[in-house]
């Protein structure tokens, strides 16, 4: 039986309550100040692969959209990450975070040290958006419903517990506090409008669940490799390598 618009939105939001990666042990460790400098660096390196893949995911989505209005609404997502003449973009802001934690930004940008598990998870998301229905692709983006809360907690926790944290190094998260609600308002309305049968509602809910699994799997791999002693997989970044002196904070 097809759910009402209100009931279906509640169903989607419940997926975040139960499955969003703000509940992962690695995030609790990170936000509470429990991560070592190298564990923070490993997170920055591996998360960069996800950040750099988002505009490619969105470009793959747009290449299949025949409705100019939908393309116009969606293209700001690419600009938010890749940047414009007036906006440096999320990818560049993430590289400033890499600078702040003492990493060689060229090494981070190369993605050479990213774990295979991270690549498998992120690449699966890009393929999902490229190959599934437009409804499923948009629904998968709705993890943004839950993102502002985790960004706010991250800003608070990093500022409290880590010397590298300041307005410059955390600018990615501050910008997402205003960018994500804009994106999700459109995406949520689009999904609620177009998921007009039980089959479509089930597919959209499954797509959002898949995306939460993608985010959770990345942290599972990170926690297993860098929190568990001696578990870093071959080819992944090794602590103590590809570092540069951390920049001095402005007085």
From TrEMBL:
GO biological process: pyrroloquinoline quinone biosynthetic process
Entry annotated with the keyword Oxidoreductase: yes
Top-rank EC class of the record's enzyme: oxidoreductase
Pathway the protein takes part in: Cofactor biosynthesis; pyrroloquinoline quinone biosynthesis
UniProt keyword terms in alphabetical order: Oxidoreductase, PQQ biosynthesis
Keyword Transmembrane helix: no
Span of the signal peptide: none
Family statement drawn from the similarity comment of this UniProt entry: Belongs to the PqqC family.
NCBIfam families: PQQ_syn_pqqC
Name recorded for this polypeptide: Pyrroloquinoline-quinone synthase
Organism taxonomic ancestry: Bacteria, Pseudomonadati, Pseudomonadota, Alphaproteobacteria, Rhodobacterales
